[in-house]
């Protein structure tokens, strides 16, 4: 059986039954989504790496303690652990994060905006930098929803679980994020409107 055919539940079961390499496969499977979500939120590679490691230390401790409750949703559960670490960090710092691009990483390039036709591709090229700046202007909770929905590809139910809010709150934050993006586009008289989804 190929490792890609093994479910998260099976890897967790293998790990708790003594197969220590199963946890490595589980980490590798979800590393990009969890790390990138943390990085988008804290905008510091070293801090995101520390939080990623701490997330999986908590995951492994939960498995070892036998307190993990399998509900078929490992990724949202692990992302919630990471999300809570971010919240704790910013509570300690008493500030909200801003999302910035760096030369080696672009928020816009990593958001799945929509399926593009030829006109959309031309439009995207014209406003690439403008979109990045617009996303940075959104309130933290709205940026977070866009990142989780369009990069991590989480459902609104999963986002609600990760952010410890109701589905209606998650949907409302997305709605306001889209309204605010459209308002910013209009206010700044940008050359092309963006379809977020």
Account of the protein in words:
The protein has 2 domains: 91 residues, Orthogonal Bundle (Rna Polymerase Sigma Factor, Chain: A), CATH 1.10.1740.10; 81 residues, Winged helix-like DNA-binding domain superfamily/Winged helix DNA-binding domain (Arc Repressor Mutant, subunit A, Orthogonal Bundle), CATH 1.10.10. It contains 9 helices and no strands. It has 197 residues and is mainly alpha-helical. Helix content is 70%, strand content 0%. The C terminus is likely disordered. It is elongated and about 60 Å long.
SSE run:
HHHHHHHHH
Let me know the average pLDDT. Answer: 79
- Give unreliable regions as ranges: 192-197
Tally of individual helices:
9
What is the annotated CATH architecture of the largest domain? Orthogonal Bundle
Structural class: mainly alpha
Q: Work out the radius of gyration.
A: 18 Å
Shape: elongated
CATH superfamily of the largest domain, by name, is: RNA polymerase sigma factor, region 2, helix turn helix motif
The CATH top-level class label of the largest domain: Mainly Alpha
SS elements, strand count: 0
**Named CATH topology of the largest domain:** Rna Polymerase Sigma Factor, Chain: A
Q: What portion of residues belong to β-strands?
A: under 5%
Distance between the termini: 36 Å
